[in-house]
Specification:
136 residues, alpha/beta, three-stranded mixed sheet, 4 helices, globular, binds zinc ion
Amino acid sequence: MNDKSHVGLTTCFYCGEHSGVMLDRRMKDSLPKEIGIVDMMPCSSCESHMKKGIWLIEINPPKDGKIPMHEQTDRKGNVVQRIPNPDRTGRMALMIDPAVERIFDKGMYEWGRKHRFLFIDKETYEMVGLDQEVEA
Ligand SMILES: [Zn+2]
């Protein structure tokens, strides 16, 4: 990454792959260089998956029950974006909407339907049988 050019690789929030290049002077100072820029825009691959289903992303549940948020700030210290940053296990799977509706409670389904992803714990992941699938 070249500091002078203010160019950063964007990292897809969902799959963690580098999804593109972003030019953004505003956010430069607040970004951890090693992870690059993360935003909530899916990469093209995730975007097409999310038209078909909802990402179920496995996480280690936070001890206090609250998902930590990464706050991105501008140069003046104003929070420009808050991104959930739980401890992920690295496993994720795509589930079609009707299946999510059947398996999860209404609140979770509605949230997932809107945001196109859900964080779930290991127990749930395996209970649903997702650990038997390799590829989304
Ligand atoms: Zn992605």
